[in-house]
Amino acid sequence: MDFERLIARVKNILVTPKTEWPVIAAEPASSASIYLNYAMILAAIGPVATFVGMTIFGMSLPLVGTIKVPLTTGILQMIIGYVLSLGMLYVMALLIDALAPSFGGEKNFVQALKTVAYGYTAAWILAVLNIVPLLGMLALIGSIYSIYLIYVGLPSTMKCPPEKAGGYTAVVVLIGIVLSVCVGFVLAIASGTNAAMQAAMQGG
To answer: Can you tell me whether residue 168 is helix, strand or coil?
Structure first.
């Protein structure tokens, strides 16, 4: 793993996306290389930060005290959240690829995976704020910026006309929201987070 290259890519896509996207679109890649060299590393930030924030530090609430997710539940939530996020990445790429002709673009799964993987960079990086649960809402800023990154990237990766990038992005975002809600429900059910939170609040 070339961490210097990883850091440079993160910096460039966040600071100069309009010049970085054509570079990304032109470079050779495979689904495996995108996952191994980029997505699997950055996607781990959120689950690990949430684990540290909710299991080790906990959330302090007035009149309630500090709520902590039990260790076993926290580990399970972290693992499931990480796996689901990587799976969601793949599904999003499939949908971006399938939608390309509808917006004047060209179908290419690897390019679609580039779009969502590099487009998610801001959301993944700011997910580190989940280490402090009360700051977790600020991570939404990263998600908003990631929408912009995808918007800027689609004409380069999927070859869609720039004037259609807005509509393409809007559909992608709506699909992403639906998938995120589904992932959240699955994560809560599988990890027993709700039960753990209730037990913690009751002192059990």
So the answer is: helix
**Tokens matching residue 125:** 């990086």
Number of other CB atoms surrounding residue 203 within 10 Å: 7
- Tell me the pTM: 0.85
CA distance 57 to 76: 17
- Name the DSSP letter for residue 139: G
C-alpha span between 38 and 110 (Å, rounded): 14
- The residue among 66, 60, 31, 59 whose CA lies nearest residue 130 is 59
What totals of helices (H) and strands (E) does the chain contain, helices first? 11, 2
What tens digit of pLDDT does each residue of 187-203 get? Answer: 677 655 444 444 333 33
- Which tokens belong to 118? 């590099």
Does position 115 have pLDDT exceeding 50, yes or no? Answer: yes
Report the DSSP pairing between strands 59-61 and 65-67: antiparallel
C-beta of residue 47 within 8 angstroms of C-beta of residue 180: no
CA distance 125 to 56: 20
CB of 110 within 8 A of CB of 31?
yes
Q: What is the model's pLDDT at position 201?
A: 37
| Selection from 43, 163, 167, 18 nearest residue 99 by Cα | 167
- Distance CA(71)–CA(81), nearest Å, equals 15
Question: Following CA atoms 135, 88, 31, 96 in sequence, which dihedral angle do they give, to the nearest 10 degrees?
Answer: -100
